[in-house]
Amino acid sequence: MTNSKDARYTVTPTKVQTGTKADMDNSGLKKDEEDGPQIPVYVWSTLEHKGGKTMELGDMDDDLIVKTDKNKRTRALIVILGQAKWPNCPAVESNKKMNAGDSEKICSAFLIPEGQKAAAVELSQGFSKAPLEWAVTK
């Protein structure tokens, strides 16, 4: 994030939805036997560039974390080759440039162990500050 070091922005999670085993099966992802069965969790957020340097959309959402009811934390899924397909959760155009005043509604997919539930969305604030946390409510 050194290219956008002095930029200011807000991240506001607006909706969390747990996906299904069928979503996982139809995603196009190869299953990782080491991690065991997983299901997707979709987090919709509004990202708003408040001021400072132009930044890429991907710089704003890369500190989001989903915490499960079993206290497991996971970052958004990054697909290195190809793209995963999720219903109603299009891939983020992470290279899109954002200027002061711009805002964007995005959806990020996270994988959690099957049988667990999303309990909170967190925003990491680095090593010296506790993360911001939004409880997931039904």
What does this entry look like structurally?
This protein is mostly beta strands. 7% of the residues lie in helices and 42% in strands. The protein is built from two helices and nine strands. The chain has helices at 21-25, 57-61; strands at 8-18, 38-51, 55-56, 64-68, 73-75, 97-98, 103-113, 118-123, 132-135. A four-stranded antiparallel beta sheet has the order 5-4-8-9, with no helix packed on it. Strand 4 (64-68) and strand 5 (73-75) form a beta hairpin. The longest helix is centred in the N-terminal third of the chain and has 5 residues, at 21-25. It is globular, with a radius of gyration of 15 Å. The chain starts with 7 loop residues before the first strand and ends with a strand. 27% of the residues are buried.
